[in-house]
Structures are given as structure tokens and as C-alpha cells.
Amino acid sequence: QGGLSGTSGGSKYGLGVDQIVQIEMVLPNGFHVKFGPTEWEDASAEGFIVPKTIAVTGLCRSNPDEEDEEKWTWEGCPDDFDVDFMDLWYAVRGGGGG
């Protein structure tokens, strides 16, 4: 077993991740982003049992100095933001059908 289940007792204590809806992270360039799939297509002909992600969109946090999470503001990323959310989704999820 790989990942958390095999090395940290994840299955013993009930840790499991099936379908990720959204990811939030701070990128190496300092941007705090959240992103997730927004369009899917049927991939059963390709052998997948879950829909295949075909579009991913994301937002950047526009007030990074605010510590109160309830006051965080999420907006479109700046024009010079040079990260493709679909590529980032693929990198984080490791590919696959979903």
C-alpha cells in the first residue's frame, strides 16, 4: 500500500480520500490558491468508473495578510499569474481518470 494508508495507519484510523472536490494550497511563487474541476465528461469507454475532468478553474486569495479565514477574499488571479490550474490539478492528483 502506498500513500498515507500504508505508512501512517490511515486505514486503521479511517483516513481515506476518494473524490477530491477542491484543493487549497500556497504555491512556490507565494500565491494562495484554491482550485478544482468545473467540467467533466463520461470516461466509461476508456475504462474509468468516474467522470474524467476536462476543465479546472481556480481563484487567488487577494488579501494574503488577513489572518481571519472568515475574512479571506477569493478573486480571479492577476493577469501575470503564470500557473495553469489544469496542469496543477493533474500534478497534485497524479493523473488518472477523475
Protein described:
The structure is a single chain. By secondary structure, the protein is α+β, with helices and mostly antiparallel strands. 14% of the residues lie in helices and 27% in strands. Strand 1 and strand 2 form a beta hairpin. The model has no long low-confidence stretch (mean pLDDT 84).
The gist of it:
The chain is built from 2 helices and 4 strands; from the N terminus they run H-E-E-E-E-H.
What structural keywords apply?
98 residues; alpha+beta; 4-stranded antiparallel sheet; 14% helix; globular
Low-confidence stretches: none
Largest sheet: 4 strands, antiparallel
Radius of gyration: 16 Å
Q: Strand tally, please?
A: 4
* Total of helices: 2
| Helical percentage | 10-25%
Which structural class matches the secondary elements? alpha+beta
Mean pLDDT over all positions:
84
N-to-C span: 20 Å
Strand order of the largest sheet: 1-2-3-4
Element order: H for helix, E for strand: HEEEEH
**Proportion of residues in β-strands:** 25-35%
Shape: globular
Topology:
Blueprint: H1 3-7, E1 23-26, E2 32-41, E3 52-61, E4 74-75, H2 85-93
Antiparallel strand pairs: 1-2, 2-3, 3-4
